[in-house]
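$ fold --in a.seq
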Amino acid sequence: MDPIEGASPVPSVAPYPGGVEEGPAPVNPASSPVDPGRVVPMVPTDTFPGGTLDPSESLPRPMGPTCVRSREIQCSNESTCDPHRPLHEKVGGHVGRWVHVPGWRRDEEHTSSDEIRRDHPYTYYVCTFASRSCAFLQPLDRFLQVRPEVPVSQHLRIRERTAAMPTVLSKAGALLVLTWLSANDVVGVHGRRSNDLTTEQVSSMCERTSNLDDISIEANASTVHWGYTYKGLPPLATVTSGDTIHVEMATHHAGDDPEKMVYGDPGMESIYKWDAEGMSVPQRGAKGTSDGVHVLTGPIHICGAEPGDVVQIDILELTPRPNPSTGKTYGVNAAAWWGYQNRNHMGLPNNMVDPNDQRDVITIYEVVEEDGKYYVQPDYSYRYDEAQPSTNCTTPSSGTLEGTDFGWSNDERVYSGVEIPCDDGEQTWPGLWFTGVVNRDNPSQAAYADYTGTGAFKMPANIHVGNIGLASDYDEPVDSVPPLPTGGNMDNRRINQGSTLYLPVQVAGGLLSMGDAHMAQGDSELDGTGIETSINGKFKITLHKKSEGLPLIVQDLDFPLISTDTAYVIQSYAFADYLYELENPMSSIYDNGNNLNRAMDNAYLKTRDWMMRVFNWSEDLAMSAITVGVDFGITQVVDGNWGMHAIIPKDAFPVAGPVDALSQDHSGAR
């Protein structure tokens, strides 16, 4: 949604049928924070054929039955419906419709004007008027959150739903749809993390029985958690099995060229806000020390998910996120200190490069579209030690994880093991020690910008999600970098559009988060990152219940399973679940997880066991089949817990019988 300042105007609805067109925002003098006792005017200025709604005027008395649906009051396409407090009336002989949010009601002391106040928001339903009848249009289970800093008028959006319109409405001649949008609304999310969904609100929202395909979470400072996952983090949205959700994902490397990837994009500006007054997202990492780097959108509560279940995620769409100010998309490859080339690995006597020449190199890539396909090509590069960007000091440097009782602190200002002191209100960064540093130099125009590689090659993009997973049942916030059995930072380029990901559930609701999207990356992610890019995605979520019998391919699943058009992909790591295999796991994983032998061992064992179970084979037969028909690959060697995957071709090893929620035919199973 819009940032706190400069929110865009509210669109208005043209007379039906005519669609939605841009118009002025409703006038709302309210600018102070919204609280449960505060009354806010809610009357739009839009004009009907034959009548006008004006915020300064009182609505006429009802000319027909009012139409509102709450959990107790039914509303259907009949000549009458159960009466309730009037929230909308016929105006000028024409028809309007109002979105009613149970718990948001007209203030009893202000019945002459259309005023409502926030009491206890849960779910809203759309009801409509046509002559003297009212029609239930469509239930939309959403939790309404209003961002306190934003005037209420800036939360309004007009949305037309012609596809779901009852026949009686097509004769009405005009429609007005006034919609409150919020944390889980069809357009985006507002609300501070401390105001996210409570257990009671999630339970209420999960009562819905019909599927939705227009849930959406936009990326902004209110919808992301930076550098960690945690089972205690309140969810932003709820989905039921079969729902489709749109999720925006912001890259954690946009600060490497903010002119191209931050400024002009309200959501990115919101996330990267960092000035003398403080940081919009100050906790970056599980303990605030950059011990975890990824900007993750979520979490998303999956109704009914329990430990032992499996969540299926169909990746329907992945598209680059252009900067609205330029219409262009850029990404970053960071050849970093944690890359394979810069570290002493596998017992080698020396680093891959001269220890005196270890360096962080930023390469900015441009995304281009040709004939409906995306490509990436290098634009320019620079060395981080030459740029040494300066920022305001990290503020605050300690706090409580919002929505939880977990405290974090970095008062010593030590980041990735390196102390960066605060001098005269600023910090200077000689290396990639802290996630999200904003280079204020306009680096593409700086003297250190190197254009010798501009356009040196152009390669097809492979848009994929690097970090997507469910929450671990670990009792503390978890570093976002090392991958887990529940997914997370797998950095597998096969998690792309058209593929399906299966993840085992460890906590109630699953708690799905995603981010770290890439325009391209080869197996190994050798130098430290892919082409880190902000991406918008569309996903279908399906829950497989253990209590109802799991599909064959996900029975006893304790690792991420990827399904593409041509193969099943077993994802494994050096430590299958390092949080429970190591002491002090979030520090010791970086000393122990850089082991390809262990990664290969686990990948083989997971593949052997899966094939024996799915095909009912002996170990000897499975070993032979793996040898002659399965390819193993190095997923990544940069994420602490190194990854190895096995590719099982579907044409050689078809799975018989029902496979998943998409298909009953194994030949096309996902």
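$ fold --in b.seq
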Amino acid sequence: MVAALSALKNRHPDSFYADYLARITFFKCPETKFVPLPPAHQTLQKTMFQKSKYVRELENGVKVSQRRRISSVGTPASQNPEHKLDWWREDPGLSEHHYNWHLYYPDTGELKMPRQGELFAYMHQQMLARYNSERLAVGLSLVVPYGPGIGWESSLPEGYNPKLEGYSFRPLNMDIPDSTTLGSRFILSSNMGFNKDRLLTGIARGYLENRQGEHVPLTMTDLGCTVEANEGSVNRYLYGNIHNNGHVVIASLNDPDERYEISPGPMFNTLTAAKDPVFYRWHKFVDSFFEYYRKTLSPYTKDDLRMEGIELSEVVVKSQPYAEAEPNQLFTRMKDKCYLVYVEKENPEKVMQVVAEYVPFKYEFSVRNQRQKAAKVVFRVFLAPIRHSDELDDRRNDFIELDRFVEEIGEGEEKKVTRESEDSSVLLPPSVTIEDILAGDAGKAAPCGCGWPRNLLIPRGTHDGMRAQIYVLLTDWNEDAANPDLTQLKASVSYCGKQGSDYPDKRPMGFPFNRPLPWKTLNEMVLDVNNSSATEVNITYMNN
């Protein structure tokens, strides 16, 4: 198998499909599913980077082309405000996260975990929350949904030029066509409107109908599977393929009937889709189904959040160097990063790109256990920007998960728990590279490559300091754990699950912000739930 895939890749070195086939085959084969693979930016460089960013180094050290420092792509921000966030959307780690998530949880074949639909909804909602925090930092408005009945009737104002080989650009003010043809797919935009209405009706009723006409009580997992239209869809004939079809329709706006044989845009490919500003507008539309469902759920009560006998009195964060750090000040900056890619096996090329990074920090949690026995506690750590409205109902979808981990607190113990930001449960562990593989040093890497980029843990912030709140809730891991023997949540598990097993946390993903809350503000919530705490922080962007 490995020899056949290697021959296929060598024969078609620039083919996205050859690379995809190789990766998904490795994931599905029991003998190879835990084999670490190099990041996509090293093997699919033409899908990841503009050609103008390449810098080839010859053996004698003479550069074939002058090194070019490219901070972002697109037109000037004065002409296109979305240009302000090109650096974020173009981050290679972001593209790889989205690509690998869908590679590991494809919409074809059997489901990889029982809560796959819920994870689809949660992971994309978190991408939106993170993108919105970046928009606020650069003075842009929150993402506005774009989909059937919500914007499709008007022209799409955002254009986008990915400047990637094999992908077309999209001019400004394109209209959604009545129908779209791409290969064997034929999509009627009106049918997508019908699918939307049927889904909303099902959410309002509290059930979906399967192909036998039976009522299936609604859950986030069933709704997520049905919206994505994977193999867990309750009824693909009735509810359609709305998520995937939307990607195809938008990607094909330049040539909806293939009359001119124009390549589709980046929305067609999971490796390039998140580069396009409209990706977030489309997924805001997709998330509207999930948010409609969340709002039908009964609000949590104090008892749902309380962990009796456990008190969290204070949360402090300190950036490196810790000895000199002023509490609750976080910092970010831009830097040049060199990516080594393999256009030719023997001659790697360097790609320079400007990316964001944050100064690592640590948390200090002051916890008291008043129980008569030791407690195994899960720390749920979130961050949300402070906006003009402090209404919790307005902010619920702003909360970004920063970490989730387990710590034991002894009987009657007052303990200061520390946690390094680099150990976060949302972050991708350090990736194996082709250089590591060639050196025989690839044993400890994450096999699936799914996980949030390590450099984008927190929003970029502002020069004056972006105000935000870190919220932490402690709950009982003995009650929450899907597997009581699991004592820790490994890196990237929050957004990507745990390979080969159930999602480790029985609580709903995003808890406690996955449904309405009875408190008016976050501060009221903290006062009522003493196993939680909120701390205001400033996020300062240090570049000029």
